Hints:
Blueprint: H1 3-15, H2 17-34, H3 41-50, H4 55-66, H5 68-76, H6 82-98, H7 104-113
Helix pairs in contact: 1-2, 2-3, 3-4
Amino acid sequence: MTENDRLQLKAALANCPELTTLVEHVRSFAHMVTHLQGDYLPQWIESARATTDLISLSRFAHHLERDLDAVTAGLTQPWNSGVVEGHVNRIKMLKRQMFGRAGFELLRKRVILA
Length: 114
């Protein structure tokens, strides 16, 4: 963050204690994600659900808890499905580009021209 952004964030946090709590939780969650520390997830969820003044954070923690094993594995294991998701995204893009173009008219033109 630039120095101006830091000053603006500091001013906003000084005026809103709920925002300070939210920033602490978001930063700790980001630390877990970037350092693959999924073992700390149950403690983070417990802490986030204890913040009754932040309903959205509590709901997010509740939804993480619903599939705790999968989320913990995702935050712990070094493997991901990024390559597969990239291929799926590429295929969907091609499908969107071709939407409405594959029909009898195109087939007839290709057969006649061939």
